[in-house]
Amino acid sequence: MNRFIQKALCAVAACALALSLSACGSTSPATGAASADVPTVTIWGYGGQEVREALQAVADAHNADPAYNTKARVEIQFVVSGTSEQSLPDRLAAAYQAGETDTDFDIIALDDSGISAILAQTSEDFFIPIDTSKIPNYENVVFKDNIVGDTFIPYRGTAVMLAYNSETVENPPATADELYQWIKDNPGRFAYCDPSTGGSGYTFVTTAIYNQLPDEARMSPDTKWETEHTAEWDNAFALMAELHPYLYQTAGKVQYPMKNAGSLDLLATKQIDMTPAFVNMVLSQKNMGTMPESIKLQPIEPAFSGALAGFCIPKIAKDQEAALSVIDYYLSYEAQAIGWNTMYASPVVDTAKLENLDHADWLEETNMDELRYFSIGMIQKDIVVRWTEEIAPLAQ
Amino acid sequence: MANQKKHRWLPYLMVLPAFSIMVLVVVFPIVNTVARSFRTADGQFTLDNYAYFFTSAEALQSLLFTLAEALTVMALSVVLSFLLALYLRFSKSPVSRALGKLYLLPRFIPGIAAVYAVMNVIKDSGSINRIAAAFGVDYKPGLLYDLKGIILSNLWFCIPFAAMMMSAALSSVNDSYVESARDAGCSWRDVLCRIILPLTYKDVIVSATFILMGQVGAFTIPYLTGPNNPKMLGILLYQQTGTYMNYERAAALSVLMFLICLGGAIVYIRSNMKEEVWETGK
User: What are the protein's UniProt keywords (chain A) (predicted)?
Assistant: First the structure.
């Protein structure tokens, strides 16, 4: 019996060996040929499904464009939020700490607010400076002044505006103060999501602080804007506490919805009349018919914080030249129009030059020329922590 | 005999793959987490990570909330699935046959889709509200973003799981035992207490401990359907990393949650090891 097992094991081992050898034999020439011709550039992203679709749509167009597909072939790897997969920042940290240098993390597509968390887990120079002279279409970008550092190339803007139900709200607030007054005048009809779970709630809290600070503060990660301006911070959190009882309630108490989608759901089902919301999320849902036509977007003064989503190249990337060509394509007018048409991504280029747009009127309504750009580094963590400690406990 | 001696390594070789995976993905991370929970961010020894949770009112509230949720879900799903399994085992009607197939369905539906489906029913503007509206009543159930919402959504997952385990246990109850007991004049209550329960109670305990342990670490359902406060321990843990980025404190909380689950695990192991008098054959 034992001899039989021994023989069987040998046979299995031999088969496995033979299989693995033959597998090597058959695949290596193929991959060798592909990499000799056109390098594959992998863009890694994380976030909502719509971001994945937009990145993929542009990638497909890139791979079909003869001017670009000879220089690189784009592949998208995406970690959709809400799945139990390991997050992209964790994967990057793991690869970095394992000392890998030749990875397929060629380009990281992320919101600029996500950069500091990745740097905190890796090193300050984890993302390499990008030579914009090798990206001809970088000339097209209109938000150059907004960009902090040379490691980040924006390809899409994200803006938060006030989304409201035009059936019940005839004159939406136009300023932040009018909005705070409106919330008090209409108890239970406004909600903002838990800032630790969604950017729309986060920006509502953040602008309450930064509306009192000098304008330069919003572009500075310097913690003096926190430590030397405690009065403004205290005011803002006192305001949040003051607004608290006037917010949306369910099961007999105030509830901060989870994630941006949570507050939008309340708006779509008309349980509230107004909420801060990402422009592209509202437009996409209107386009799909899951958001009623009566929901409109209103910019307020001073504006909610905007942000940019863009590309970074980690120093552990394998082919940085090819990556620049791919980034160049994402900044072309053609790619920017695809971005709008797939996810209503706010373009980072002159919108007048975009062609074949769906719902061009929506783009006009949500004009991004005056993006109020925020880049405050780790201060954003302090805002969320303080909200979690001071405001969240009120909801019980 | 000599042959057997020569191949003494064979059993070890056979368990090696499973054992090494266990060490790599279970034992090593646990050891690592325990070690980290006693350290500061710069690697110094500290007990502060634990002190934080033992002195924080929020953590205590979370613990009580989690226990309330877990015990309720456990009790309800055990009782409901035992009744369901009994019905499926002893009824031969077409309804029971159809139910027998249907109840497995939730096991094959992705969790996140199911949570949103349940939310669409129970939320204040959901199906319940709409059906009531058709009768001219504006009824807001107030179930979502509340303990009740978490319990309801979890029952959706736990009942099929527990019913499946109990159905398997009930299949060991031979029809002939029940028939002979009935012939000897046993009431249905006696059949339940003297035949069915002694044959199945181990599986009932096993499914109860599985459910309890699952609830202590639950994340997705309470995250989406629970209130802002109090939070379940899984959310509190997520907050330690996601909001505070304090990995050492998160490690300490993980260890504490692990200890809570250990209680369940001990019950599970003890009930599995215990041999009944009739099983030992004495």
Answer: Signal
